[in-house]
Amino acid sequence: MLQLSVLPIMTPMNTNIIKKLTDLVGNEFCTTRREDLHCYSFDGAGKVFLPDAVIFPESTEQVSAIMRLASEYTFPVVPRGAGTGMTGGSVAVQGGLVLALTRMNRIIEIDDKNQIAIAEPGVITGDLQNAVKKFGLFYPPDPASLKFCTLGGNAAECAGGPSAVKYGVTKDFIIGLEVVLASGEILTVGTRTEKGVTGYDLTRLFIGSEGTLGIITKLIVRLLPLPEHKETFLITSTSLSRTTSLVARILSSNIRPCTLEYMDRTAIRVVTDMLSSPPPPGTEALLLLEIDGDRETVERQSVRLQALLASEPDCTCRQAATTTEVSELWQARRSISPATFNLRPHKISEDVAVPRTRIPDLVSCTEKLAQELDLLILTFGHAGDGNIHVNIMLDKENPDELARGEKAKERLFRQAIALGGTLSGEHGIGISKAAFLPLELSDTTIRIMKGLKQLFDPQNILNPGKIFPQEKASH
Fold this sequence. Notes:
Blueprint: E1 3-4, H1 15-25, E2 30-31, H2 34-39, E3 47-48, E4 53-55, H3 60-73, E5 77-80, E6 97-100, E7 107-111, E8 116-119, H4 125-133, E9 137-138, H5 151-157, H6 164-167, E10 174-180, E11 186-190, H7 202-206, E12 215-222, E13 224-225, E14 229-237, H8 240-251, E15 259-264, H9 265-271, E16 285-293, H10 295-310, E17 315-319, H11 323-334, H12 336-339, E18 346-350, H13 359-372, E19 376-382, E20 387-394, H14 399-418, H15 437-440, H16 443-456
Parallel strand pairs: 1-3, 4-6, 5-6
Antiparallel strand pairs: 2-4, 7-8, 8-12, 9-13, 10-11, 10-12, 14-16, 14-17, 15-16, 15-19, 18-20, 19-20
Helix pairs in contact: 1-3, 8-13, 13-14
């Protein structure tokens, strides 16, 4: 169940402010109706904060004008894409204005000769992928929510996905941005070219900044030639520890998969009904692995993979024979997160990342936490780059179970850092991880980050209350 909390805002958004905002975009695209506010009061983190208004600009100029008003009247502005984030990054924790960018959804240009595309932030990630595919190109970042998440949101959180093991994450494919600053000024950073070292790399600074430094209104993204061939393998195992250890062995055997996904036995169980050929009885874990490239390279690496697995007595390997089978496997993988609610009504969803060789230690830690704290915990995710999703399933209406869940979360974070890892691989910090930021970053690092925030947003009106530890609030 979503829980509602409304914190004090900086400046009340009175009727005068609302009228000025409405004049900018029209009556149809600015709302204060309570039922509309509720629709934009939460994201995947499950905490609810009611904004005072929601506005839907259609151009950079409108966003600029909105920010000039916000600077004049000092009310918070929270940029928002599809609201699929998992850490509360797009909720209005201090009230104010939610700036929904869904109307800014044009693919402005596909330059197939130079292999780039220019798009607005409201473009659905999957829609861009489908559009560039017609030119024999592809845009690799592929978060699980790609059918409805947006490019702007992906950039704000530096989203990843299964393809990150070979191709990298969102920051590796954005080469230029147009950004509206808190003052309303319009800033362009980066280039259309592969190389560019004119001054500081401000493009990377905005990616992953969660809307706290500026509002992205245009993106220039790098594209790649569509791979000629791809093969998909399902590797099942009766040993969880050997499966997690196998990840590093595969990647050190001159095999370069484009995806290498992992599921533990509980994750497998929640999606088994989606598979026409379920894993064998006794399966404790599985790997979903794909190899792409030119046909000769794919075939050579496939032979190498099967030879490696032949020496693993606990493993079986099945090669997908049809595109339908491949689609079925991926549908099951992408459905794990929502399917977990069949186990318990709520969850704490985390996405820590560790060096690949430490994945067995991390998974062992989650098994230990589940046993010691009497919790249902499952693990799955992007094993190829060490980004493991840990879902702590619980009932938040049970105070004792919720307390044990929060204790498991903190111990998980501490263990991830101890293993040389990070608090977040692709979900960002938002509000759900902000209190734990000092576990990973030094006082000096946090001070420098806060200084950048102050420089770009001196009045703290852009997505306030995110990333940095705040005073404790009741949700």
